[in-house]
TrEMBL record:
Coiled coil: none annotated. Its EC number is 2.7.13.3. It is an enzyme of class 2 (transferase). GO terms for biological process: cellular response to phosphate starvation. Residues 41-261 form the Histidine kinase domain. It comes from the Bacteria. Keywords: Kinase, Membrane, Phosphoprotein, Transferase, Transmembrane, Transmembrane helix, Two-component regulatory system. This is histidine kinase. GO terms for cellular component: plasma membrane. One of its GO terms (molecular function) is phosphorelay sensor kinase activity.
Length: 261
């Protein structure tokens, strides 16, 4: 009888071991697929600007170099392509850090209005090209002190504002508003009256590399990582991000932040 019990225990142990191994293998497979997909996406993102740069260089080597004005124009375009590559690589670096949780938030108290003014100054030209007006729905002189990682929050706001301009309509508006919320929080909203997002795409726009219009947004020059980065940063602050959007009407992205202590 003793032996039978031991055999039973042993069989159970073996089964448990096998089950654990199976789970481990499945997890590894999921991770491996995730890694492959990520690498596939990266190569895809890098290919377009790289081919553009190569195209200009080859044309220059092919004789375009002789003409001074053409030479300058092509070099400028090649340089824009390189700029784009750097931008994508910076975003990739950021998303990798965010996804492995390797991001140390350096929290401080800062005036979010002041930060928004610098961001507005930075993107005013970009907005002007589409005749988009950037506005605040708050008193310009008012200070709103919040607590968070200023550099990262700057990236959140920049990404949301850039998107509102990119997907905003000609002669449209982009408005940033800040409102007090209960329990020591503010909510910051970035609203545009641009192309909007169809209902079925809304839940997916925060996924990395997800784009509604595959060709359109690439032409606009994003990395497809902007909103994924935004979501990670907001959540790393233990805050929430919301989206409301209607096709043809516009979009509103909002997130909460803690007020300065
Ligand atoms: P991208 O580099 O493509 O802009 P993002 O992660 O910033 O990448 O955004 C993902 C997708 O979400 C965009 O390709 C676009 O389809 C959609 N999107 C983001 N912001 C807006 C907006 N303000 N209005 C309409 N569509 C938007």
């Amino acid at each position: 009888p003793q032996i039978t019990t031991d055999m039973k225990t042993l069989t159970r142990e073996v089964e448990r071991f096998a089950q654990n191994k199976k789970l481990e293998i499945e997890t590894l497979k999921v991770r491996e697929n995730y890694r492959k997909e990520f690498i596939g996406n990266i190569s895809h993102e890098l290919k377009t600007p790289l081919f553009t740069v190569q195209g200009y260089i080859l044309t220059l080597l092919d004789g375009a170099m002789k003409d001074k004005s053409v030479r300058k124009k092509y070099l400028q375009r090649a340089s824009k392509g390189v700029e784009r590559l750097i931008y994508i690589i910076k975003d990739l670096d950021m998303i990798t850090k965010l996804e492995v949780g390797d991001l140390n938030l350096v929290k401080e108290n800062f005036d979010i209005i002041k930060l928004l003014k610098t961001i507005f100054d930075l993107y005013e030209m970009k907005a002007a090209r589409k005749n988009i007006t950037l506005t605040f729905d708050i008193d310009y002189e008012e200070k709103v002190m919040v607590n968070g990682d200023k550099e990262k929050i700057e990236q959140v706001l920049s990404n949301l504002i850039i998107n509102s301009i990119k997907y905003g309509k000609q002669n449209g508006t982009v408005e940033v508003s800040i409102e007090n919320l209960i329990r020591n929080k503010v909510i910051i909203r970035v609203t545009d009256n641009g192309e909007g997002i169809a209902r079925e795409h809304i839940p997916r726009v925060f996924e990395r590399f997800y784009r509604v219009d595959k060709s359109g947004s690439r032409k606009e020059g994003g990395s497809g990582l902007g909103l994924a980065i935004v979501k990670h940063i907001v959540e790393a602050h233990n805050e929430k991000i919301y989206i409301e959007s209607q096709l043809g009407v516009g979009s509103e992205f909002s997130f909460t932040l803690e007020k300065a202590k």
